[in-house]
Each structure stands twice: as C-alpha cells, then as structure tokens.
Amino acid sequence: MIDAHVALMMLGIFILLVFLGFPVAFTLMALGIGFGYYAYFDAGRMWRSFNRLAEDSETLTSVITWFEGAFNNRIFDLFINQTYTVMSNEVLTAVPLFLFMGYIVERANIVNRLFSTLNIAARNIPGSLGVAALITCALFATATGIVGAVVTLMGMLALPAMLKARYNKSFASGIICAGGTLGILIPPSIMLIVYAAASGVSIVRLYAGALLPGLTLVGLYLLYVMGRAMLQPKAAPRPTSDEVPEVPLPKVLWMLATSFFPLAFLILSVLGSILFGLATPTEAASIG
C-alpha cells in the first residue's frame, strides 16, 4: 500500500468517525497513533522482544516482555516527545488564553448588545442588518481568533434576524460564513499562532502582515453588501420602523459607548501591545 492510499484511508476514517459523533481531538490522536504505528512498524524489532519472551519463565517478566514487544515502536516515543514539545512551547501558550478571552466576551453578552446596537445605528444604510452582522463578525473574530465560534454564535444570533427581515437566504448565509472566516486572518488569529510555532516565523511579523489585508477584506465585504442591497433591494430589504425603531442620536452614541467601544478597546489594547513590542503574544493574551 503506497503512502497516498494510506493518507486517503486515514482521511476517510477521520470523516466517518467525526460524522459518528466522536470527539475530534481524540479521533485525531487515535488516528495519529494508529497510522503512525503502521508507518514505523519494524517486525524484526518486535520479534526480538518476543524471542526473549520464550526464554523467560516467570509470569510477570513474560507479561512485561510481551508489552515491550507489542509497543516496541517509535511512534510512542514521538508521541511523548511531541506532547512535551507542544506543552512547553511559549508561543502556543497564547492559544488557550485567547480562546478564554473570546469565551469571556461571549458570556458577557457583549456580542448580542453589539449586534443590536449596530443594527439600530446602521438602519439607514443599505443592507443594514448585513453590515451590522459583518462588523460584529469582524470584532468577535478578532476577540476569539477562531472561525467555528463566530459562525456558530452569529448563525444563531444574526441569521434568524436577517431571515425575519426577508433577506435572501443564500445572501444572509454568505454574510455569516464570510464574516466568520475573518478570524483566520485578522490578528490575534489562532491559525497564525500555530503557523508561527510550526515554521519558526515571528508571530509579531505575521500579525503585522495580516492586519491590513484583514481590514481590507472587511471593507470589501461591506462594500459588496451595501452595493448588492442597492442593486437588488429584494435581497436585503430596508427595515421598517416596527422592525428597527428610530432612536435619538445621543442614545445611539451611548449604546455604542457601552457595547462597541469596550470590545474595540480590548482588541486595540491587545494588538497594540503586540505590534508595538510592548508585550509578547502570550503576555498580551494574559492581559486580555
């Protein structure tokens, strides 16, 4: 069996186990150990251990020798070494800290209030719900750094609101999916942290290089949503006064001050401390 066949088999088993409901982390670990055992299998090395089994008469020694023969494979040494290497990597320590920061932002109900406030503030803009959803996705993606959390939360929060406002289904779904993927690019992206740890590239340089393209992508998404809302009004109807009430400007500014600016200040503080060299990503994640 060639390597390509083994890789395809591994991918197929992974997809099957995930669809059956097995946890992704344990599925990946089991597949890695199982196929790694196959890749590093050395029959001569194993049988040398089993040959000693025939020479031993004591039961306990025989059991130990049998286990030594069955597990006499390099994959177990690599498993232990790689586990220690990942756990002792200072750059990767930032990953759970950024995830914890995003979890706190989610549980603090900031995202819900932010989406509602932006929806009211942008009610006179074409595609106001889509614009509010995209900005919320961008800010929440920046706070979490991962795609799944953003798509899941905004799918439950913004998608029903857009469908209730008679938005085109594919248009509304595309807004959520496109906004959720911004978490891969806009710092502090978890993917960039993992890539920096694997490739040895400076995470600060990766963040500096990804910030402007990420913001540019947000701007292009917003232009597309507003442009399509103007060209195809049925795809993104304007909200009525019953759906989104008219709110005085001072109250809108106060709502923004209590929902938008705290999250923006948190993000700018974390990113600013990293980009200006005031703190490492791990230290900035701890502060956040």
Secondary-structure topology with pairs:
Layout: H1 3-19, H2 24-39, H3 43-55, H4 59-70, H5 74-87, H6 94-107, H7 110-121, H8 128-144, H9 147-164, H10 169-180, H11 182-185, H12 190-199, H13 203-231, H14 249-275, H15 281-287
Radius of gyration: 26 Å
Distance between the termini: 49 Å
Largest sheet: none
Classify the helix fraction into a percent range.
over 70%
> What's the oligomerization state?
single chain
Low-confidence stretches: none
**How many domains make up the 3D coordinates?**
2
Which structural class matches the secondary elements? mainly alpha
DSSP strand count: 0
Order of helices and strands: HHHHHHHHHHHHHHH
Proportion of beta-strand residues = under 5%
Which geometry do the CA atoms define?
elongated
The average pLDDT value, as a whole number, equals 77
Key features?
single chain; 288 residues; mainly alpha; 2 domains; elongated
Structure description:
It is a single chain. The protein has 288 residues and is mainly alpha-helical. It folds into two domains: 3-87, no CATH class; 94-287, no CATH class. The chain contains 15 helices and no strands. The chain has helices spanning 3-19, 24-39, 43-55, 59-70, 74-87, 94-107, 110-121, 128-144, 147-164, 169-180, 182-185, 190-199, 203-231, 249-275, 281-287. The radius of gyration is 26 Å and the shape is elongated. The mean pLDDT is 77.
